[in-house]
Amino acid sequence: MSRVEKSGLYCPNPFGEFDQILLAHGSGGRLMLQLLDNVIMRIFDDSLMHQGHDGSLLEPPHSRLIMTTDSYVVRPLFFAGGDIGTLAVNGTVNDLAMCGARPLYMSVGLILEEGLPVSILEQVLLSMKSAAQCTGIRIVTGDTKVVERGRCDGMYINTTGIGGLEAENQISAAQICLGDAIIVSGDIGRHGMAVMSAREGFSFSRPIQSDCAPLWESVKFLLDANIDIHCMRDITRGGLASVVKELAAACKLQFSLIEKNIPVDSEVRSACEVLGIDPLHVACEGRYVLFVPGNSAETAVSLLNRYYCENGDRMGNSQFQAGVIGEVIPGKSGIVTLRTTIGGNRLIEPPSGEILPRIC
Amino acid sequence: MSRVEKSGLYCPNPFGEFDQILLAHGSGGRLMLQLLDNVIMRIFDDSLMHQGHDGSLLEPPHSRLIMTTDSYVVRPLFFAGGDIGTLAVNGTVNDLAMCGARPLYMSVGLILEEGLPVSILEQVLLSMKSAAQCTGIRIVTGDTKVVERGRCDGMYINTTGIGGLEAENQISAAQICLGDAIIVSGDIGRHGMAVMSAREGFSFSRPIQSDCAPLWESVKFLLDANIDIHCMRDITRGGLASVVKELAAACKLQFSLIEKNIPVDSEVRSACEVLGIDPLHVACEGRYVLFVPGNSAETAVSLLNRYYCENGDRMGNSQFQAGVIGEVIPGKSGIVTLRTTIGGNRLIEPPSGEILPRIC
């Protein structure tokens, strides 16, 4: 993408007779240049993209760099609270944020299905641009491929992110200590249920909005307040259950969670009950788990709630309920127990099969 | 990918009863961890990948950075001279090399089709690892998604590369000058024809091998010899014709090429004649065009031929015929003329439709 000079002209009907993606748009020829100039470069429009090369020369970083990548194959492309474009930017931004890194640069790899309406592509690219601007990451280079009808599902997007490390202390599973408080930044399970609703046409009394949102600003708010974050992880595929199990195994400690403290929206809870799905297995795209020393848990929670009360989640959502959901205790490595609302204890396991395919 | 600790054990039959990719391998649950541990992390096995995080902390760079991305959707996955894995590494390495940058770090985003044999996945990952080692780039982070049967074509791969700029002078279309010699690093059109042969089952008297190969070492050889490279571009989708047209437009100068100087393997030429395709429109994956001052053209060509004579192309191929194929002349911006072997002159145009879909 970065090799093509920008046309500089806004063209209201850039494709003339074509309003769908053709195989020839992936050919390296004239139509491909038109797609790049008139749609992709026009929408993204970052000076680093206009260097007339296949690679983008980045501005010199001031900090150590983090690299992360994700492909997005969500079905359907649009859902309440976002679309594949919002997801593709925020998902990668959040992987950087969880390392304590400010999102700096992003590449975008598009795989388009022949026949995709160009209007859909434009809508998704505009979502990407808006999400990128919202969090300050720059889309600097890209690539577009087209495959035949039936060899994709509308479009798949890969984004790779480069971030600059701002956390002074190391943030990783290895830093999790006995006595750490386990905090969740907001209610869980909305993204997975929003995508399921859009896909299956479920209707609930109140539509479930995805929680898809960027996390860097709230992380930065905690770092600036000198909260000693030992570890963070965004809650995505496999839900909260997968995240805590993976981290408990990685730090070789036991976690104890309290079910009544885990925030779940009532509509999400009802939907999960109807579908027979455990909300702990449902993905979010704008929530994270963090581990902090027990004695700073209260401060961290009140900072998070203050941040979200003042800023929303930058995607227009202002309902948040950050809270302590458990602690790190002596016990067996990799075990996570849940004290249930009815007073029992159960072991938490990640989902073993695929309950919600293609939610990100 | 980088979030999962490596099992440390070689497991000869890592999947037990599963020898195919299941949707559950993309779930974030137990099967996904098995796929990561027993196949992907075991094969790639880079210490930067084992940081237990979704992002990978890179070692501090000594130079300015270049970022590039490409998705690979080649059909079929295997062809004479390479496979989608070789291509996915070399293609991205070459985009960095063309900027004058040493390939440093790479991310890998896999989109797998349900039902893909795990043995095929392993074979492709081994090709990636081998191609990465060959050129010194480190695969540091990754992501794996699984889509339903019929929503992909075996597998698609995105690679995003980070390179460290080593060229001292700027290398870009804007540096191309009147009087520059236009050099091609080897014979053109083999990759496209190798893929077409594999796809359509054509058989020729001698099989056409793809030219897929990494270009950085040969670029470095020229830079070390103080060749003042004004611009380089690898010849991929759209072939030599697309590359020269795009560069002539970007530098606003006219190019004059001489057909008899453009090296085309006799088997490739015959295949193109049978299929009615202009070899100038056929992709390579290990050839580049470079622009140098006219008075250093001879030195650059002899260095290139010496390099390839001594080193092959690092993919076992030693037949190369670098040569001057034309020059930059006064004239009309964006025009490229070809003096044909029968003495006429014709204008070069990029392909306007799609003649060879999905060759990379």
Write a compact overview of the structure shown.
Two copies of one chain form a homodimer. With 360 residues, chain A is α+β, with helices and mostly antiparallel strands. Helix content of chain A is 29%, strand content 22%.
Name the structural class of chain A.
alpha+beta
The oligomeric state of the chains shown is: homodimer
SS summary, helix count of chain A: 8
Shape of chain A: globular
**Helical residue percent of chain A?**
25-40%
Q: Using DSSP, what is the number of strands of chain A?
A: 14
N- and C-termini, Cα separation of chain A:
24 Å
How many whole angstroms does the radius of gyration of chain A measure?
21 Å
Give the neighbour order of strands across the main sheet of chain A.
9-11-8-12-10-13-14
Unreliable residue runs of chain A: 1-14
Major sheet details of chain A = 7 strands, mixed
How are helices and strands ordered from N to C of chain A? Answer: HEEEEHEHEEEHHEHEHEHEEE
Mean pLDDT score of chain A: 89
Structural topology:
The structure is a homodimer of 360-residue chains.
Chain A: H1 30-44, E1 56-57, E2 65-72, E3 78-79, E4 82-83, H2 84-98, E5 101-113, H3 118-135, E6 138-147, E7 155-165, E8 181-184, H4 190-200, H5 216-224, E9 231-234, H6 239-251, E10 254-258, H7 266-275, E11 288-292, H8 297-311, E12 323-329, E13 336-339, E14 345-347
Helix pairs in contact in A: 1-3, 2-3, 2-5
